[in-house]
Amino acid sequence: MQMLRKRQQMRQHCDLRNKLQGRVAIITGGASGIGEATARLFADHGAIMVMIADIQDELGRQVAESIGTHRCSYVHCDVSDEEQVKTMVETTVHKYGQLDIMFSNAGIVSGSDQTVLDLDFSAFDRLFDVNVRGMALCVKHAARVMVERSVRGSIVCTASVAANHGMEIRTDYCMSKHAVLGLVRSASRQLGVHGIRVNCVSPNALATQLTCRARGMEMGEVQKSYEKFACLKGVVLTPRHVADAVLFLACDDSEFVTGHDTVVDGGFVRQ
């Protein structure tokens, strides 16, 4: 009861630009794309520390410095390695005293347009190591410290519109995002008793540095090619649109929302 009153008082003292006042967050894959946009938004909304975790060291440090090292820090972490994930979480809690938000966002795209008939399982295993194993490790270790410290935290995972649809190509990627949705639905049921919310955000195809490299195209070209996947016209999906959805799931605006897949898809159209 005392904790509930404290959270209500915190909300009363937060204005619309401080939805994460006093919170500590980890964002994996935070050096670019959706992760970077979310890190900047979290800092803008009063998070006392945003820990960016990535394997792009130089880029990650640049993002942290541009946000401000008093509010953002960078740590190297390969999410497919459990020891690195565990260390990342424990270091964050040790340095900043708490962990309120885990945005498990790190992921990779399929290296080729694989179908079931020509699956390359070496590429398949690497993709699952990051997109599935890495996602589960981040949820596991974030949840453990939240439970230990009686924190009513928020865990958000990056899924995809591919989590709810079959695909004619990129079978491995589609499978991995279905697994993320299953993880969120199971974890939300298991962690609800501790007051921990678990949700995911599912963006439509959008142009990021990752997708541009994967397709060997410029940003404008990739954006143009993705326009056909949405029925909502006149708006180009950007990482900031997804970050806004993550902010909603991370803050108290979604206090009674868990196990939910928040689609940011512009009315996804299957071709």
TrEMBL record:
Regions that span the bilayer: none
Domain of life of the native organism: Eukaryota
Similarity comment: Belongs to the short-chain dehydrogenases/reductases (SDR) family.
Protein name: (-)-isopiperitenol/(-)-carveol dehydrogenase
Origin species: Pyrus ussuriensis x Pyrus communis
Lineage, broadest ranks: Eukaryota, Viridiplantae, Streptophyta, Embryophyta, Tracheophyta
